[in-house]
Structures are given as C-alpha cells and as structure tokens.
Amino acid sequence: MQSILSSTETIRQKFLEGFNEKQATLLAEVVYHAYQDLVKTSDFNELKEIVRDLAVAQKRTESRLEELSIAQKEMTEAQCRTDEKLGQLAEAQCRTDEKLGQLAEAQCRTDEKLGQLVEAQCRTDEKLGQLVEAQC
User: Is pTM, for the whole model, over 0.70?
Assistant: First the structure.
C-alpha cells in the first residue's frame, strides 16, 4: 500500500480514471493526508511490544512485592517473638532483683549473727581468762 500511496501524484493518476482533473487532485490530496495520519502496522506492533514489556515488568513487580510481603510478615513474626522473649527477660530480671533483695536481707542477718557470735566468743575468752586466773 505504501508504494501505491507514495505520492499524491500516483493517487491523482488513479482518480483521473473516474474523475475530472480538479476532483482527482483534491481527492488525491485528501486521501494522501488521511493516510499519513493513520496508525501504521509497524506503529501498532511497536505498541504491542511495549505493552508486552510492561506486562512482563508488572509480573516482576508483583513477584517482588509478594516476596517483600512475605519478608515483612516474617519480620513481624520475629518482632513478636522478640517482644515475647523481652517480656520473659523482664520477668526474670524482676525475679533476680527479688532474690538479690532476699540475699541482701539474709546477709544482714548473717552479719548480725556473726556479730553476736563475736561477742559470745569475747565473753567466752573473758570467762576462759578468768578460769585460767582462778586456776593459777
């Protein structure tokens, strides 16, 4: 078709077979310009290729989004587990603090008893000294 519509002159020659000179020239110009504005098969094929490429890119994007969604879900689950472990750790720390308080109290009682033992030992030493003196 391109070779047929290569110029308005070729088109005009064809129209001269059924129309007068003025009509053939006018029709040739109209047809030639109308043809220039038409979408060509090559343009349409190029557009189809672009759409095909976009569809492939869209599939890759959707696949990547799915991967990201899965990764986000896994991270959310990991964060929940971390939060749970942190809660358990906080509870264990409270128990440790409580036990440490109990140990401090027991240490105080031990120190008090030790002080009493030291005093008793002093009294025993004093009495022993008195006994030794009394024996001499």
Answer: no
Q: Are 28 and 36 in contact (CB under 8 A)?
A: no
> What are the residues whose beta carbons fall under 8 Å from the beta carbon of 24, sequence distance 6 or more?
12, 13, 15, 16
CA distances from 27 to 6, 7, 40, 77 (A): 15, 13, 21, 74
pLDDT at 81: 98
- Does residue 36 contact residue 30 with C-beta atoms inside 8 Å? no
> How far is it, in rounded angstroms, from Cα 70 to Cα 48?
33
Q: Rounded to the nearest 10 degrees, what angle do helices 8-15 and 21-37 cross at? A: 130
